[in-house]
Design brief:
alpha+beta; 2 helices; globular
């Protein structure tokens, strides 16, 4: 059976949710990377760029994450990754503000 890999995530707005879609998108990007690694065995990737689209109000927000094996393993044991994870955010006529979010041990 052929299985597809995830390259793009879409976050739809739901009533009662926070106006900040990034935590959910980051979680979904990590899950997508884990899925993609499973179906790419025996030689899975050690990193992958995942693009995401979310709606904040009536505006689309485009995020780009590089999810790494280090991040996947850290999340799996409830720890911080050894390297920072940077989320690039784009909105308003594709103007880039980077980085908008970073996960690392301080």
């Amino acid at each position: 059976m052929h299985q597809s890999t995830y390259l793009l995530l879409v976050q739809e707005g739901k009533r009662g949710q926070s106006n900040d879609p990034e935590p959910q998108l980051i979680a979904e990007a990590i899950a997508a990377f884990a899925h993609n690694r499973r179906i790419q065995a025996p030689s899975p990737l050690d990193r992958q760029v995942i693009t995401a689209i979310a709606m904040v109000g009536i505006s689309p927000v485009f995020d780009r994450f590089t999810v790494t094996l280090d991040l996947l393993q850290a999340v799996g044991i409830g720890s911080y990754p050894t390297q920072p994870t940077v989320v690039l955010k784009e909105w308003d006529q594709w103007q880039t503000v980077a980085p908008s979010f970073s996960v690392s041990r301080h």
